[in-house]
Amino acid sequence: MRDLQVILDDIHQQLQPFLGEGKVANYIPQLGDVSPKKFGIAIRASDGKMFSTGDAQEAFSIQSISKLFTLTLALQAHGDRLWHRVGRESSGNPFNSLVQLEKEDGVPRNPFINAGALIVTDALYQTDKNAKDVVLDLVRRLGRSSTAAFDVEVAQSERTHGYRNLAMANFMKSFGTIHSDVDPIVDAYFHHCSIAMSCEELATACSFLAAEGLDTEGNRVLSASQTKKVNALMLTCGTYDAAGEFAYRVGLPCKSGVGGGIVASMPGEFSLCVWAPGLDSNGNSLLGLKALELLTTETGISIF
Ligand code: GLU
To answer: CATH number of the domain at 4-61+198-299, please?
Structure first.
């Protein structure tokens, strides 16, 4: 296999003509301010080497990638009991849909759609009233970052315009599947989504997914079995309504966010993050998907 750095530089070069393609999310107004031409990718190999190119050191809004870390903390706290409250199936509906909740008694299909993440945040809040900060603390520790932070303007922008998430939380409260008050739960959720950090930091933060649950310092984050299961959920539910397309074209467990970031893991080999803010019609980073497809095609590495 060619050197990973050479491959990343080559991918960056191949994507130059397409920079700016896709639609930057603006349903949270503050997210719409980012330049559509940004592109960064970082790979952290299991031996600790970092390979990166483009805007890989620039912080961006991680949005739904935060759902991975909220889930990790809730699994630490509740283990398999968490699955009494949230399912593990693809939803086949948009990430912010309310439709299934009506028919399925307020139990979300999986932890990576918004409804599921709100339930997971509620579970976290039950064990730790500081549910907002514990997620930031975790990503800082795992990502070895002293600068990852809430972007309070993004959080406020979502708070002001997040009618759907507020509706969803209240709807689930009406079924009794959200146990706490709705307000602190949505507040924590909006803050988790607003965390700003870079591709290099996120690739580092996700390394436990490629290391049977151990972080970069050898501390246990999840058991090997839980880690396998989180990777499985990323593969089946991590990329909105395009999990099949990602499995087909990329072949790695991935989690994406509407900020244009996608994290992925190749167990035993590496974890990575790619960022390009323009989204496709499913809400995944258009060039992020292209970059990952090129990477697994050029390296021949995938879980399949
Ligand atoms: N904060 C965003 C929302 O709830 C996250 C969406 C996403 O990245 O999928 O709408």
So the answer is: 3.40.710.10
